[in-house]
Each structure stands twice: as C-alpha cells, then as structure tokens.
Amino acid sequence: xxxxxxxxxxxxxxxxxxxxxxxxxxxxxxxxxxxxxxxxxxxxxxxxxxxxxxxxxxxxxxxxxxxxxxxxxxxxxxxxxxxxxxxxxxxxxxxxxxxxxxxxxxxxxxxxxx
Length: 114
Ligand SMILES: [Zn+2]
Prior knowledge:
By secondary structure, the chain is mainly beta.
C-alpha cells in the first residue's frame, strides 16, 4: 500500500473543526501508543511515541507534528515504512504505512484480550 491515505474523520462530532481521527491513539502522559498491523503476517505492533522528542514539529499546513520511522514486528522481517501526521493535540490527521495499516485502540484491545 503506497498510497498516501487520508483517514476520514468519521467520528468527529458536530461543531468540531479538527480533522483529527479519534480512536487511533492511546495517550499516556508524555507519550502515546498507536497500533500497526503487519500486512504480511498480521502481527499487531504497538508503537509508543514520546511527544517530547520523537515528534517533529511541522512547518506544513494541516498538521503540527509528524513521525517517520521504520517499524518492525517480531514475527516476520517485513519493514513497515510509517509516516504519521498529528494535530497539536497529538491526534492523527494523516497516515501512510507501506506494508501495514493502523488499527484502532478498540481493535487492539479486543485482539489482546484473547
Ligand atoms: Zn509481519
């Protein structure tokens, strides 16, 4: 999947102007978790990002922070080229993951509960 995909803000309530897509981040004080599923083996890799030093400030319109990194699980050697863009409240507004996809916190919880 090489297309730069825009997650639609389907869950943003009325009256909100943010484009943020809720449900993909679990905030944790100085950091947050996102969950990435490997296209090749289906493993879900939790990725913790520190807000303080891992998120780069953006000079671009439309987002305030971004993270670019290679994510690897433990079950196969697929490398997932990941770029995430966040608004100023650290909610995801855009994502692009080659070889994987984001899942919601809810999905992750229902998988890991088993
Ligand atoms: Zn994998």
